[in-house]
Amino acid sequence: MADPSSYRPRPGEIPDSPGVYRFRDEHRRVIYVGKAKSLRQRLANYFQDLTNLHPRTRTMVTTAASVEWTVVSTEVEALQLEYSWIKEFDPRFNVKYRDDKSYPYLAVTMNEEFPRVQVMRGHKRKGVRYFGPYSHAWAIRDTVDLLLRVFPVRTCSAGVFKNAARTGRPCLLGYIGKCSAPCVGRVSEDEHRELAEEFCDFMAGRTGTYIRRLEQRMTEAAEEMEYERAARLRDDIGALKKAMEKNAVVLADATDADLIAVAEDELEAAVQIFHVRGGRVRGQRGWVTDKVEEITTGALVEHALQQLYGEEKGDSVPKEVLVPALPDPALPVQEWLADRRGSNVSLRIPQRGDKKALMETVERNAQQALALHKTKRASDLTTRSRALEEIAEALDLDSAPLRIECYDISHLQGDDVVASMVVFEDGLQRKSEYRRFQIKGFEGQDDVRSMHEVITRRFRRYLAEKEKTGEWSEGQDALTEEDGRPKKFAYPPQLVVVDGGRPQVAAAKKALDGLGIDDVAVCGLAKRLEEVWLPDDEDPVVLPRTSEGLYLLQRVRDEAHRFAITYQRTKRAKRFRSSPLDDLPGLGETRKQALLKHFGSLKKLRSATIDQICEVPGIGRKTAETIAVALAQAAPAAPAVNTATGEIMEEEPGTMGSSGEPVTTGAPDERRGQET
């Protein structure tokens, strides 16, 4: 590791102007490229106290051995130069989008004598009309196969075309009517080019006028009793409509836009792009990247724009680009896009309407892509084994932690304090062993004390199960119930992970020590900097950014957080929906609904007399008296009700009703999905 002060430039050497900078390692390899509005201010951020830097940034500056820069005139030039250098040097610490394969386009070679429809990849060529990109080449071929019936444009290669012209015999498509066979002179060059232009117009979204024209011609043919021609036109219209169904109509016909969405976590991000042309989704593509550097959503969007449009010109950049967050600053990026297109480009965040709704669809696709990527990564046995070995090595464990339990505390401003316990075995979720806890030992917000209580309760149950089985002398059968299911809390973990830093780790360790448990390791994962804390260490363990062990710990922590906050929200919603009528014996859901429907609200029901309550079908006098008393007791400072007459009595000074807060009684249910 290099000392950044050894290669730090003097402040006076760094210009206060826009530019692009490169960090190089000891072998002169470029490891990071960045741009800045002010090189002096930006580079000063890298050479501050290392403890103030994000771990990923700290790793970069300590790996580097030198820094150099290039001054440019504007921020747009800086953006262009940054992209060029990233493509040239492929720096290890820059954002890199994986799975950025060359997506296929539907291309029409209008620059040839007889234009050809084909699938194309790679760089765009002048004089060729492109439509897409598409996710798969077969999607293009399906669309073309439907359209060739109406627009029989040439699709054959140059060799096949010349051979057909030499022999005077067209290919099979010419015989079945899916090619106009210009190779043998069935149509002239101008007629074939007109067909190609109509094909391009249809693909560009100008479909309504053409179909209406065909429908009119079909009607005229039928009126003239040319039924065969009318039937052929009818089939052509059906083929076009079927092709149109393959591209959902989502926006106005004139809309040309790209919608970009980002789904991210602390370690990775997924980008999804929908290409809308002529109001239809013409293509979709996506990338996944490791977040090697500390980066915002706006910066991820900026890198995606560079990746998407860096090699493209003209029509490839649409009039409108919709994003979830704007780059900072946004103006240079917008000017760069306008330069690539040759006209103004709108770069903005959709706020309402159809574009906002479509953006939500793109966001869902990005989230699914990220989840699928994580699932594939987690399902790989070799990767999981390496992750467990890295955790064992980093935490100095005797063996790989095959069972990991993670705990998280959740509350809303001190109310409804709950905790979660999630279990991963062999690097995979074991959802049947998840548990939820209500904090019972005290009121209010205290995450450290809550963590101590939860760990104590969980491992006290473990010790109780251990004592029942006679120190495990009966073998594996001692761990299961008579029906073969595992006993609750019977299996001890090799590693306990808590969501938090040193205070939470110390609380968990204290709880285990208090129970005399010394064979379970404890660590904490602090979310802000992804640092791993151990009970007896002053400094955290910083796992490498590319570590599979760090990735597994983060998955465990995030799952515990999700499970805890879901339970906390459920409890809060249940409390808000609670009613004084919920606990009345003999009053089921049907009669409760009948009461509320009759009176319109709980407030009106509370002010009703017993005789008025008796008017509700199914409610007798005794039940009405019980309801009146329950409602009176549940309302603070509520007046008393004479159960004999149903009249409201004067309240004695100093008396108050109960708070009406619902109380849970009975033994806790230890099953999955229930609180403990």
From TrEMBL:
Assembly with partners or alone: Interacts with UvrB in an incision complex.
Biological role stated in the UniProt entry: The UvrABC repair system catalyzes the recognition and processing of DNA lesions. UvrC both incises the 5' and 3' sides of the lesion. The N-terminal half is responsible for the 3' incision and the C-terminal half is responsible for the 5' incision.
Domain GIY-YIG: 16-95
PROSITE patterns noted in UniProt: GIY_YIG (PS50164), UVR (PS50151), UVRC (PS50165)
Organism: Streptomyces spinosisporus
Record keyword Hydrolase present: yes
Protein's name in the database: UvrABC system protein C
Top-level taxonomic group: Bacteria
Family under the similarity heading: Belongs to the UvrC family.
The UniProt record lists the keyword Cytoplasm: yes
Pfam families: GIY-YIG (PF01541), HHH_5 (PF14520), UVR (PF02151), UvrC_RNaseH (PF22920), UvrC_RNaseH_dom (PF08459)
A single GO molecular function term of this UniProt record: hydrolase activity
PANTHER family, per database record: UVRABC SYSTEM PROTEIN C, UVRC/OXIDOREDUCTASE
Subcellular location: Cytoplasm
Keyword list, A-Z: Cytoplasm, DNA damage, DNA excision, DNA repair, Excision nuclease, Hydrolase, SOS response
Gene name, Swiss-Prot/TrEMBL: uvrC
